[in-house]
Amino acid sequence: MKTDSFLRGAFVLTAAAIFVKLLGACYRIPFTRMVGSEGIGLYQMAYPLYTTLLALSSAGIPVAVSFLVAERGAVGDRRGARRILWVSLLFLFSTGLLLALFLFLGAPYLAREVLGDPRACYSLAAVAPAVLVISVVSAFRGYFQGWGVMWPTALSEVLEQVIRVATVLLAASALISRGVEFAAAGAAFGAVTGGCAGLLVLVLIFGRFERSRPLLNGRGRSGFLLGDGLKLLKRLLIYAFPISAASAVFPLMQAIDTVIIPNRLQAAGFSVQEATSLFGQLAGMAGTIVYLPAVFTVSVAMSLVPHLAAAVSRGGLLDVRRRIGAALRITVIFCLPAAAGLCVLATPIMELLFDEPGAGPVTAWLAPAALFAGLQQTTAGALQGIGNTWLPVVNLLAGCLVKIACNYYLTVIPGFGIKGAALGSSLGFFLVFLLNFWFLSLFTGYRLQPNCLLRPLLAATIMVAALPGIYNLFYHLGNAAATGAAVLGGAALYFAVLFLTGEIRVYEVRRILKR
């Protein structure tokens, strides 16, 4: 089993993430028709508690495992890498089991007192075992990522989602005659069956992976004392905790936005209904589209961490800088046209997707965040890869303060309104990226190459100039046809310019995709 290259691993994870998201969006149509709004409500009630407990159990652990495994692998210590897996498995199994029991046994109370609908207890109890299963799955995923092998994670994610969706539809159809609460519970159990399928395939791959790399030349002692395990666990938690803290910042900011933005819009003179509608345009429409490139940049960051950790362990500072440069280059290539295209086509895209052209202006103001959020994620992954896990959290909090200030002050300025909140998001991500990049330069000596920006900027400028013409050319066929033609034509033109200028070469694409 060959180790995947950094960029190939990122593309594999991205392809899997796109498939999972598309399948996750598509199954809701037949499921909602099957159980109705009441059934989908009971089904959705279980997931905030489930995801919260899952985050408490395992958030940050896969990245921590991949970092520590990459360290051991870089010096040829396969036995040490395997010890990290066993320690993480034991820890995650213990915490996952405790939290799963808490959710299962506390389901009646939580449904009645927290969710306000006693019928939700069936969904809570049905999804509870998934906390344990997915916690264990995350350890195996982190182990493979630590060796730079991304396809087991991608395969398990795809299989998990396929089995989950199949369970949702089959269980809901089989149980709907007993009531919507039982249909919703059967659907919620899909997280368990999907997790078990993902775990099974990871265990099978793990057996093959370890047989292909025997420990004959493994370094380190063959024994494993309790003290060694506790030291490993301490390192694991020290590394995972700031990553978990960073993952909690975004849900916290969403909660703060929900409180600040509508209230400030009302203070600016908007009615309650108008403020709620404007907030929906920002959070529910513009944000959904603008942050789509994050699917790719999250994969880049995830793939980057173990490669940088291995390079640091080998003392290869030149290799560290090369990989950071490659990650930033690929982030700019994919996120820049998304930001530029959304600025120009914001109104047609909002009309096409949500039948709400009024959301176009706020989308255009938020569009730069597509680039800056991607750069923030990539640079945060790079900092984590070189062992600085707390800096991304501190920098992210600084960006959040900028966002809060913009939410509070700009939304009440006449002419700004909800656009001020969108601008705050863009400025916040831009500040976080600048801080992350400054620290990366300080610790690694990396300097941004002009070609990393100039040729993509040229391609994006040509694309932006051509988009209105392409849209108007097809407008007589309707907004949907004109928007689709503009998006496809603009993308084709952008990448054609990159090929012509030599920013992307055919042999590079073949090398990335070649197995």
Automatic annotation (TrEMBL):
Organism per entry: Thermacetogenium phaeum (strain ATCC BAA-254 / DSM 26808 / PB)
Sequence intervals crossing the membrane: 48-69, 89-110, 122-143, 155-176, 182-206, 236-256, 282-305, 326-350, 362-383, 390-410, 416-440, 452-474, 480-501
Family annotation (PANTHER family): LIPID II FLIPPASE MURJ, PST FAMILY PREDICTED COLANIC ACID TRANSPORTER
Membrane topology: Multi-pass membrane protein
The protein's name in its UniProt record: Uncharacterized protein
GO cellular component: a single term: plasma membrane
Keywords: Cell membrane, Membrane, Transmembrane, Transmembrane helix
Record keyword Oxidoreductase present: no
Compartments in which it is found: Cell membrane
UniProt superkingdom: Bacteria
Pfam families from the UniProt entry: Polysacc_synt (PF01943)
